[in-house]
């Protein structure tokens, strides 16, 4: 054994020399001057920036990330047309000032004929894209409207009720405090006319509800009571628009940004739209997480979504009920009106909503795009599908009579089943947008039986956030 080891040691240099004729190892002497570190803004500019200067921009998008309408209760022979008309858009115009500053004016109007109230919301915002001068000097982008920003924003809400009697359609605490103006400091990311995400903090000035001499409710327009509140919120918005000056679009490679050529079999998504809102009278936090997985190499996928929302709001304390009797000139009773009575003590109420939704999605044209080499098998594109959800929400049943008030805490359950149409896109920087509209058959189970527990509804949803 000792001789064998000595023999191997002796032959090792010969083996190494013998291998030099068959294996060549070369080293590059080319020096690397720098490594390019790219960001989400860099990738967006390469895909959609078109290497252009933007002086003005006009965009439109949904004012609310979620909207739902009961088409059976709409007084129209064309419920889908009415649903489209009730869709609330926000219009924005942005004008650049120099390289890195701009001002924005926006408008949201809710003035549909069957609304309880009308709203005209005007906003003025001054914005500073604080990294843009440096990025333009480095040649990484042109002066446009993509980048991180700081801004000051002022908002005015000119609202009024169409009919004060129609307020009974809503819970009084919904209108305990309604802002008429707000002033905020904002930080965010904007990606052209397509996506804007950020945070706001500031002050609200508005009208506060009151109690009359008979202990009845006075809505915030009737009470003439004013108040100021702080607020903190997250903001997420998506839209489409035009850039000025007009310029012929350059064919860019958007596939790298949208991951067209990357195979994606599963996706974990965290929705940031309406993530939280806090002020003195109302607080709300929402967690919305989804997991989507493809079924084999087919264009089918299963999307599992769990949502949890917790809210706390402040209102006056209910005490009971009273009668208001009106007599005519003959002394006969003309009318008797009952109303809920309150005391000025403030009371916090907590609510929760937990929802589990399962979707079976079919991505339209996915197989054809893969066969033509236009896309890999992933989770991007238009889709149709089936959806079903189970929701549990807190339900406070209030029984009011002349002896006082009795409250019964319980839960309201919803079962929704229906069809959906949507569009989803994922970027290479771990973000996503998912827009969908569903027609659902809804069944409601309440602790206290009441009518209208089987409905057909239209549901609009906009989700954007992180994905990996």
Describe the 3D structure.
This protein is mostly beta strands. It folds into 2 domains: 39-252, no CATH class; 259-468, no CATH class. It has helices at 2-19, 40-49, 79-86, 132-137, 220-223, 255-258, 366-371; strands at 56-62, 66-70, 89-97, 101-110, 117-128, 147-161, 177-191, 195-208, 210-211, 217-218, 225-238, 240-244, 266-271, 276-279, 282-294, 300-327, 333-363, 381-401, 404-426, 431-445, 454-467. The model is unreliable at 1-35 and 165-173 (pLDDT under 50).
Task: Give me the secondary-structure topology.
Layout (H helix, E strand, L loop, with lengths): L1 H18 L20 H10 L6 E7 L3 E5 L8 H8 L2 E9 L3 E10 L6 E12 L3 H6 L9 E15 L15 E15 L3 E14 L1 E2 L5 E2 L1 H4 L1 E14 L1 E5 L10 H4 L7 E6 L4 E4 L2 E13 L5 E28 L5 E31 L2 H6 L9 E21 L2 E23 L4 E15 L8 E14 L1
Antiparallel strand pairs: 1-3, 1-12, 2-21, 3-4, 4-5, 5-6, 6-7, 7-8, 8-11, 9-10, 11-14, 13-15, 13-21, 14-15, 15-16, 16-17, 17-18, 18-19, 19-20, 20-21
Question: What attributes characterize this protein structure?
Answer:
single chain; 468 residues; mainly beta; 2 domains; two-stranded antiparallel sheet; 21 strands; 57% strand; globular
Short summary:
By secondary structure, this protein is mainly β. It has seven helices and 21 strands.
Q: Summarize the amount of helix as a percent range.
A: 10-25%
User: Would you tell me the structural class of the helices and strands?
Assistant: mainly beta
DSSP helical segment count: 7
Task: Tell me, briefly, the overall form.
Answer: globular
Order of helices and strands: HHEEHEEEHEEEEEHEEHEEEEEHEEEE
How many E-type strands? Answer: 21
What's the pLDDT, averaged over the residues?
A: 79
User: Which percent band covers the strand fraction?
Assistant: over 45%
């Amino acid at each position: 054994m000792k001789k064998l080891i000595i023999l191997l040691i002796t032959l090792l240099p010969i083996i190494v020399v013998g291998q030099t004729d068959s294996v060549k190892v070369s080293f590059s002497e080319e020096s690397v001057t720098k490594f390019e570190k790219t960001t989400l803004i860099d990738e967006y500019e390469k895909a959609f920036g078109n290497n252009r200067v933007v002086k003005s921009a006009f965009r439109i998008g949904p004012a609310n990330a979620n909207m739902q309408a009961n088409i059976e209760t709409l007084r129209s022979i064309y419920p889908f047309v009415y649903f489209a008309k009730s869709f609330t858009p926000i219009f924005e115009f942005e004008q650049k000032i120099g390289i890195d500053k701009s001002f924005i004016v926006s408008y949201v109007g809710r003035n549909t004929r069957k609304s309880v109230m009308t709203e005209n919301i005007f906003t003025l915002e001054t914005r500073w894209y604080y990294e843009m001068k440096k990025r333009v000097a480095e040649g990484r982008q042109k002066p446009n409207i993509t980048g991180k920003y700081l801004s000051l924003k002022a908002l005015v809400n000119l609202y009024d009720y169409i009919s004060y009697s129609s307020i009974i359609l809503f819970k009084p605490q919904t209108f305990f405090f309604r802002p008429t103006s707000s002033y905020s400091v904002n930080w965010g990311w904007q990606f052209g006319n397509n996506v804007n995400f950020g945070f706001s903090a500031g002050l609200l000035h508005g009208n506060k509800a009151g109690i009359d001499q008979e202990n009845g409710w006075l809505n915030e327009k009737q009470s003439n009571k004013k108040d100021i509140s702080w607020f903190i919120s997250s903001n997420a918005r998506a839209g489409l628009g035009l850039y000025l000056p007009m310029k012929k679009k350059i064919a860019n490679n958007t596939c790298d940004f949208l991951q067209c050529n990357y195979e994606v079999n599963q996706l974990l998504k965290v929705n940031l739209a309406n993530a939280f809102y806090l002020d003195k009278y109302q607080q709300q936090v929402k967690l919305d997480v989804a997991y989507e997985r493809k079924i084999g190499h087919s264009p089918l996928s299963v999307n599992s979504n769990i949502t949890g929302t917790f809210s706390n709001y402040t209102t006056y304390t209910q005490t009971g009920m009273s009668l208001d009797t009106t007599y005519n000139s003959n002394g006969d009773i003309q009318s008797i009106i009952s109303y809920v009575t309150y005391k000025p003590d403030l009371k916090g109420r907590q609510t929760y909503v937990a929802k589990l939704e399962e979707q079976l999605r079919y991505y339209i044209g996915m197989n054809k795009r893969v066969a033509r080499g236009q896309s890999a098998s992933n989770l991007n594109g238009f889709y149709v599908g089936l959806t079903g959800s189970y929701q549990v929400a807190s339900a406070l049943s209030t029984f009011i009579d002349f002896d006082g008030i009795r409250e019964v805490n319980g839960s309201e359950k919803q079962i929704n089943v229906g069809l959906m149409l949507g569009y989803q896109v994922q970027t290479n920087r771990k973000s996503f947008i998912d827009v969908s509209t569903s027609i659902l058959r809804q069944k409601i189970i309440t602790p206290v039986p009441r009518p209208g527990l089987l409905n057909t509804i239209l549901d609009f949803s906009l989700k954007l956030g992180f994905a990996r």
